[in-house]
Amino acid sequence: MAEPIFQEPTKQVKGVGDLAKWKKSQAYSDYMGFVRMMNNAVKSKTLTDSCNISETCHKLIKMIDIIDEWAKEIPPLEQPQRFGNMAFRTWHTKLKEGSIDIVLNLSSRLMSLAAHESMSMACACRHYINLKVYVAFPSHIDCAPKVMSPLQYLPNATSYRDCFNYQLEMNAETLIKDVLPDSCKDASLELKAYVTEGFGNYTRIDYGTGHEMNYAAFLCCLFKLRVLTEADSVAVVHHVFNRYLKFMRYLQMRYRMEPAGSQGVWGLDDFQFLPYIWGSSQLLAHEKLSPKDFVNSDVKTGPFAEHSNQLWNISGVPHWTKVNSGLIKMYDNEVLGKFPVVQHFHFGNLMSIKPA
């Protein structure tokens, strides 16, 4: 069988008219299938329920632990502007430099698959997702991220922006060619795009549902590559994504990141969406908590209907089943159906713009 061919992911949704192409694409089908698969996996389960945490899941958590340490080592700068601390760009440069080595920590080889073979995920998630799968059997290597200071590349640079722009122009594949296993090399070319885009925007120093989507797409790709399997589903939500969520809250506060495309009180949340979907799934069989109970939240001051209008509307739905299905529809329409979000998404072979 032929080796799968991977490519540098590129932006394909360049106008509102391209949204129809996106909604018919293999990438959209795979991504929504992933969201639904995770949603089903955590139904009526709590974060404290025991579950299998594979070596791959541990490596994904460790990946975030590593970049968390980077953030702790890079303090916010003293600056006049209230939002968007410029130190975030230093941290993001480190992420950009180390992304391929981080990805390589997850798997040492990918098995070949016929280039155009389409398989259902019957062995992994029958009834819930239908991905075009690249079959792989994961083994692992120890390959700690090798991070260099940006100023080592440009000693005379006047700012970290200069270093970052230079890094973008460098051929990252050439730099790490000697350490990449042949069978994994091309896949990391696509995976790194979703890793580097999943933690906020370097230039705008903001974060929103589009960046969250990129990290989720990274996890989706690992399922397609069979680096993650159905047995990992609960751990992916309860441990991997939960660790990602906690880190993003820390990153947002540390560098005063602005919400990307915030709708203010008319939006569900300034930064995230997926935790609401999967969280409502966790509550499906809860005997005490109902949607209306969240109106009593003490997170913000003032009338709940004013500062969290969408959540207040949702609290009027009597059952979690309706809330959960409604949130999935809302996510499809308000996030995946919006040009300002999807225009920044990259498409390659793993997340293909080709029709499903």
Automatic annotation (TrEMBL):
Using the UniProt record, give the first listed, main subcellular location. Answer: cytoplasm
List GO BP terms, alphabetically: mitotic spindle organization
Pfam families annotated for this entry? PTPA
The protein's location, in the record's own words, is: Cytoplasm
The free-text function statement in the UniProt record for this protein reads:
PPIases accelerate the folding of proteins. It catalyzes the cis-trans isomerization of proline imidic peptide bonds in oligopeptides.
Describe the family membership recorded for this protein in Swiss-Prot or TrEMBL. Belongs to the PTPA-type PPIase family.
**PANTHER family found in the cross-reference section:** SERINE/THREONINE-PROTEIN PHOSPHATASE 2A REGULATORY SUBUNIT B (PTHR10012), SERINE_THREONINE-PROTEIN PHOSPHATASE 2A ACTIVATOR (PTHR10012:SF0)
Protein's name according to its UniProt entry: Serine/threonine-protein phosphatase 2A activator
